[in-house]
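Supplementary notes for students who missed Thursday's class. We covered one full example, reproduced here. Read the sequence, then the structure, then the short commentary at the end.
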Amino acid sequence: MRKGHRPSQAPSNRPRFWGRHAVTAALANPERVVRRVWGTREALAAFGGFPSDLPVTYAEVADLGRLVPSDAPHQGVVIEVDPLPDIWLGDLLEQSEGNNRPLLILDQVTDPHNVGAVLRSAAAFDALGLITQDRHAPPESGALARSASGALETVPWVRVVNLARALDEIGEAGFWRIGLTGHAPRTLGEAIGTARVALVLGAEGEGMRQNTEAHCDELAKLPISPKVESLNVSNAAAIALYAIATRGA
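Structure (token representation):
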């Protein structure tokens, strides 16, 4: 896959990940550059060793707490990393040929916990990848990696400048673009069909922007009770991915 690299960052701006799942996944990802490791002796012993050129610092729990946001559940290990190389949308769409895996598109979802949880669901249901805008999506961070529970390292995440143009390209690649919104006339089950699906979800409260809806082939809703106005975007993504995975079953 052809990839580009973001401009180099000063060490102070590099993301720091914490927790066993996020750290283990980052270390196992050949595309991820890990710059430094801190941890308690007990926690680091569980990793069974590190590359000889990777700086490793033993630290007390209190010292680790000063490396990450307050109350972050670091589980005794923190790493400093470079952001992953950029992935191009065209390359991801080339990979989609010959399979029926869904795509996920988020329209201005900025909460790192939500994006991380969506990545985790994407990994669970073998989605092809995640598409977001470059400027209106969270950067890689410890909170996002923690919520993704390792999926940040395994699910391709494409950042695009213009989401409407990206949706056009996705449609030309043969995906049926379904935007999830509560005001749609049909349910997702009625709209899925048999084609490859690109699911489009908007931010909580505001939902998808009008221009994003206009670049979908169809709008659909989840059949939730009127007792609840809407679902968290990560919950909606998980339910929609399950519906796609089990269609026709």
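Commentary. Confidence is low (pLDDT under 50) at residues 1-11. The two ends are 33 Å apart (CA to CA). If anything here is unclear, bring it to office hours.
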